[in-house]
Design brief:
Blueprint lengths: L1 E7 L1 H5 L3 H10 L3 E8 L3 H7 L9 H8 L4 E8 L2 H9 L12 H5 L8 E3 L3 H11 L9
The chain binds adenosine-3',5'-cyclic-monophosphate.
Adenosine-3',5'-cyclic-monophosphate binds next to loops.
Length: 139
């Protein structure tokens, strides 16, 4: 079984649709094996999105990510990294396929409701960023 890191972003937590997103995750045969709500500091946000530090949207992205609490979660399942990215849909909700999370709930390229790791290597790094070993259920 594989693991990936998912973030339910401020726009979605604020609109109280964490449960609806979790339901889609579960209906699509992915298991939530760790989950917590946190309010990031600006330092956390800059470290987490460090790979984008030279992009024009970096500062706005970090400010947005600290604008309200987020829900971070670890998802488990076969090929979960690619399957969760497919369920999320394109970064820009306007380009996302029907029935994806971003098509259903995303508001804009920034307020796009969810994040998911883009590779198994990054999933491990991102999971370790948010969770201690004992917080992640492993069957
Ligand atoms: P995420 O998967 O969390 O990874 C980086 C985030 O940057 C991305 O989702 C978008 O929400 C955000 N972002 C903001 N502006 C842009 C942009 N112009 N192009 C791509 N990503 C953007």
């Amino acid at each position: 079984m594989d693991l990936t890191l998912s973030i339910i972003k401020p726009d979605a937590v604020k609109r109280n649709i964490t449960g609806e997103i979790n339901s889609l995750i579960e209906k699509n045969d992915m298991k939530i094996v760790a989950q917590k709500m946190i309010h990031l500091s600006i330092d956390d946000a800059k470290r987490f999105y460090g790979v984008h530090k030279d992009r024009a949207f970096f500062n706005d992205l970090c400010e947005y990510m600290i604008s309200y609490p987020i829900v971070v979660q670890v998802l488990m399942g076969k090929d979960v990294v690619s399957r969760y990215r497919k369920l999320m849909g394109a970064t820009n909700p306007a380009n996302a396929d029907d029935n994806t999370i971003r098509k259903l709930y995303g508001l804009s390229v920034e307020e796009n409701s969810v994040h998911g790791s883009d590779s198994s290597e990054n999933a491990e790094i991102e999971i370790n960023f948010f969770f201690a070993e004992r917080e992640v259920y492993k069957s």
